[in-house]
User: What shape does this take?
Amino acid sequence: MFEQELLEIDRRHLRRHLHILESEPGPTVTIDGHAVILMASNNYLGLATHPKLKEAAVEATERYGVGSGASRLISGTLRPHVELESELARFKETEGALLFGCGYMANLALLPALIKPGGLILADRLCHASLIDGCRLSGADLRVFSHGNLEQLQDLLVRRAAHRKTLIVTEGIFSMDGDAAPLPGLVDLARRYDAELLVDDAHGTGVMGTHGRGTLEYFEIEDRVPFQMGTLGKAFGTSGAYVVGPSSLIHYLLNTARSFLFTTAPPPASAAAAVAALEVLRSEPERRTRLWSNREYLHSGLRGLGFSMPPTVSPILPVIIGEPAKASTMASLLWNHHVYAPAIRPPTVPKGGSRIRVTVTSEHTREQLDRVLEAFREAGKKLELI
Ligand code: PMP
Assistant: This one.
């Protein structure tokens, strides 16, 4: 029954496979027995392997055990969970924070809390699958506007029925393009047309802004957006996700969000490691300095080679290839040069937008980045992309 569908996926060059890492996640790794430079991790600040995070995880495991044993509202709320929530609220300067098992679950919780059937959601076309699934789950009508297009969004706001409850949905930093949403313009439109704005800052958290508070800090508009979500599995190096905002929203989610209520609480080790991550963000700003310097070096190197790249402002550096088959060949050529940067193909990205999604971290050395650029040069020439 499934064979036919799998053959069809093969025919369209869209078959996916798991790659097994036998080592820590970067910057060099052993994947399927092959030593490569990893250019595909969201561990932007190298915190997944930071000694302080490991120590916090081990200590929490020794003290509380490996699993939390129940959902948060039954008996699964352990000290590290609440400590993390209070530290996140302090970090984001909000009244409260709520921890979720992952970003996917946070979005499945948040969308139905913010808007109900009869309401209208206006979402950027490139929003992450978890946002779209959350939108669907809410039962509200969903319209998309083309990526970052404020004029089109305004048009949709003007044409909707008067007083219709409306929610604008966007990512802060877009996960496959690395560009920032036009957040100041989105905030203005939301204010002017009495809509609410949800920002998923999965990729901005820890990375963007002077203190790593995210994309709203980068645009200096934190005081204009009352709530947001972000994840802990990327720059924070652990796992889980948070919603931060006013106490009323936090308590409403705690009482009603099904992906909070009906799931086992995250392991204490990951919550304790995230508390340590917050401390490292404060005490080691040099990690962000190194990240931005590596990012500039690789970005200008790739552009200098002549690759086509969208206007990214983050450590996500997409190299646009076009057709999925060609993107897969490019990834294989890079792999032969001991560089792992995977091809991203539809449906993750729009048709014709297949790409190599490169991510750079604070922990890559210049020598590694030079080897990556050399691999791109060789592979790009072979495929006549440059
Ligand atoms: N939102 C965005 C924008 C993401 O990129 C991701 C992860 N790829 C998620 C949400 C989901 O987060 P998690 O991996 O914690 O489920």
Residues 102-104, 107, 128, 130, 171, 175, 200, 202-203, 231, 233, 241 surround 4'-deoxy-4'-aminopyridoxal-5'-phosphate (CB under 6 Å). The longest strand covers residues 316-322.
